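Narrative of activities, Objective 1.

The group set out to show that a structural description can be obtained from nothing but a protein's sequence at a throughput compatible with the screening campaign. Below is one input-output pair from the validation batch, recorded exactly as produced.
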Amino acid sequence: MLEMCLPKSNHKKLIEECYPVPKALATSGPEYRPNSNELSRLAYYATNKPAKLAKVGAVLEARAATDARAAKGSGAAADKGKAGLMITLSITQNLLTECKAHLNYFIRPAQAIIASGLDAAGPNPHRPRDLEISARSASAFYALASYIDPATTNVDGGFKDLLKGFAGLAVERPRAAGGVDQAGAEDVEQRNRTRLIGLSALAGAVGSDILYTSVFASHSSLIVPALLENMKDNRVTLDWLTSESKKVADGRTTFSELSIKKRPLASRRAPSLSGHIDGEKGPNYEEVVTRAIAIMQGLLRHGDAGHVQSVVAHATSWLDGQSSLTIPPPTDGRQAKSHWENVDWCRWLAQSLCSWTALQYRFVVLTTLVEHLVDVCEGQATTKHLSLIEMAKGILTGPLSLIGLSTSDTLSNLAALAVRRVYKDTRDSLLPPLVDCISGLGTHVYYADQINDIADEIAARIAALQMPAAGAEAAGAGAGAGAGGSLKGGNLTDHLQRQRLANAGPEQRDESIRVLLFCLMGVLRTAHRSSGEVQKGVDDRISEDAKGKTAAAGNQTQIGLARAGTRNRVSLSVMVRTASLLTSSNHGVRLAYIQTLVTLFRDEIDRERGTGGAASFDVGLSVERIEDAIGFIHALAASTHVMGLSKSLSVGQAVTGNLRESPLEILPQLERINLDPGRPGSLMSGTASSGQGTASEATAALPVDYTAIALALEELISAAPSAAALGLTPMLLALDKDAGSRLVVDGLSNGSNTGLENQRRIAARLVSARALAKLGEALEVASISSSAQAVISQIPSFGVELGPTPPEGLTLPPEIVPFSVVPGINGAGESSSTGSPSVNRSGVIDGLASSAKLQSTSHLDTATIRRWLERDWSVGMAVDEAFAGSSPCGAWSAGGSSANPTALTSRRPSYAPSSSAAAAPGAANGANVNGTGEGLAPNGSGFRPNGSVVSLSTDTAESRSAGIDDFREALGASATSQPSSRLLGVNGNGTGANDLADRRASRRESRKISVVGPGAVGSGAAGLNATGAVGLLDSLKVGVDEQAENDATSGALDAAAGTATVPNRPIAPPYAA
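Output recorded for this entry:
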């Protein structure tokens, strides 16, 4: 009977022909290559009949499984199984390359074949890992990953399993096969070869299009830990890592055959990887590290913002020891330790991740790290917290640009974290690095007002911390925004944090403010040291005319950097709300604030140019700078006056609880507390015991405060002499005068403070004299400089002068050095001239009014400057002027001329508190009684009698300061005065002497009628007689100019003078400054 011959399928026949004959199969090594001609025919067959790929794959998969089982054994059968498996893997790689357009038919069997190869190559009791099978499997996987098209093909869990297997290869620690002495030790050469094979397979996955789809998060959780494990500095130096990272970032990678570049599918190639070659020296560890760095750079360069965020998140998980990939422990006896403990390496990693990321996505690295820091930074400070802060700091202070970074969000997160740490521990070890990290925000500038906005946000946080019951809420809200706003699950943390902040005391609040001040100081310093150039991203299109590889790449578009001008300086107006820090009861806060001001004045204020007429500089620009700075200078003047003359800067909760809109509202109240002789603990109180005086002295200004504020004022005058002259001079004259009248030894104090008032009087006058001397020098008024220097020469040295520059970084508060230990000042005593001003008020005013430099920069004439400087200055009025930004040159700055100032609109933001909040302090200080102005007709310079600017709105009158005249008229004594007396200089030339004399005479006549008339009921006087408020003011001659009264020739005044008894000299009211 004839034996029937069943014909084989065509695809089976083609596959069998690719293998050597069975007898020669075991000796086909070491190449283990299929028959080339038959392999080409099989590839041609599969290409022309794509549906047959599934059958081809099934045959190859079955054969691979059989050969893999045989390869795990030993002897000739194992050699034959290995040869068959190697050839099967080679055929699979070839089919993946040639049939890339139809991989959806072949992907499942291909994955099974590669998995069989990985399983067969693993170490077993008979042999170590077979590197040849591992390398051939990696080559097939590289081809599979490179040619998968996500538009036509999907991957399942099999692909991820293969990825996990090769990631395990990349971190494997093979043991040495030797004697007892080598048992357990790593085989270094085997380890390096194995890891290079695994990293090569991961390179194929990183270059695959399928990775950058919805599977990125799960797949990168395996890739990133494997790469990081091979980038550690265990066997290489950090300097070498930095150099190699820069080479890779610049595209100078050593492994050009594995450069991770995404090309069109048609032009991609899959390299054939090799294992050990006899006689070849094994690779060193540096090659492993370099390949891992190159693959990580490709992973980040190809990804978008979401991909970069996922990579950084997986990196932090690996640093925590919680990666998805199982990392084998060291086998050489080394103790495994936390990766966070290597702070320098963590900083290098963060900077390298940024350098490897595309320019437009670099900011994501920093943002993710900061958010993770805010999430985990609770409890005691740990090395992880420090490393995260150093990583963020390294990115911020590094040379790389972070285009797209939200500096506001970053600052908000870091500042809120700093406040949280302070409220937990005022001496927390993380605070200095946090301050340095926040300071790094000034390194690069991405828009013109960036530094100004940073300063504004920090100032707003400081102001919020000063407000009653809002400090904890502001800090807690900031912490919530940082921890819960952009992160996950912050509800419980927010609740606990708010409870902690609510229970905190003034020590935590003061230290929080001090830390924020050092942050601001650091940002200003860093911005000043940087170039100040604004960076912006642009499309950098590669020219088609470029030669070589660039031209071959086509007309590609890249993101580049371009210069967009220089940044704007920080405006002094952002600091208005912080001026009350000068009167803080905490000496560390006061000194930190003054140091911040010194830095601001030195680095951020544009120096005035020119000493002559308008030809030497832009008058409009100089006036605009005066307008920008004058509001803060008013606030600084009020704070300086209060600090210099107050016996105690500590106020009770009842006082701070009345603050409504701004911390500046505390200044008039603090002034009244220290001025009222009837208040316990006030400067002239006789009820304060010796013990109370000693306790309150600890919160008063110290010698270093006086020297520091004198230095700050000198810096301000040097930078902006014109604005300083207009804003500071009335205060300096008042400080010198009030120091003589208020800081005197009080006989009722029972000797408890004998000498203290004398010391502080000398210190206050030193501040005034040094500032006036600098004013005279800056504005070239020799008479002021000489007279001020004469005062300074008579004052002994304090011995507590500040250094030339504030300290770098966060420092501890200085020790308290009271006046009692200052050697020179304690020897000075009282004299007959103690109560008299030490400087000539009229001489200072005349000298400044006639200064050509001041007139040219402010665009004001002599009469206008003199009237501005002769105002009845008070703390309350200065606070109101700080809110309104009052200036005598407001009309010029707003419109460029004084032709029609009433039609001008204000360019300044309003900082004025509500009328209800300002009414009480304003009325008691002769300031704003009802919170609203009266809309006086402006003169040519925009000047008002009590220091307010002209109304810059056509609809509503601007809030203005009010003098004693307006206070009297508000009580009802103005009904009989002429309406024309309310107008000031309507001819545009300012109020003349005749106008003022007429106004005073008319006012005096109306007062006499109401006081001495029969029944004393005048029209509009509201029934007030000699015993009423107006009569009391008139009897004391409050607000009456003696010289004007003597020169008056009014007949009605002469007739009434005989019937009224008035004192020979005016008496200052108790609340007058």
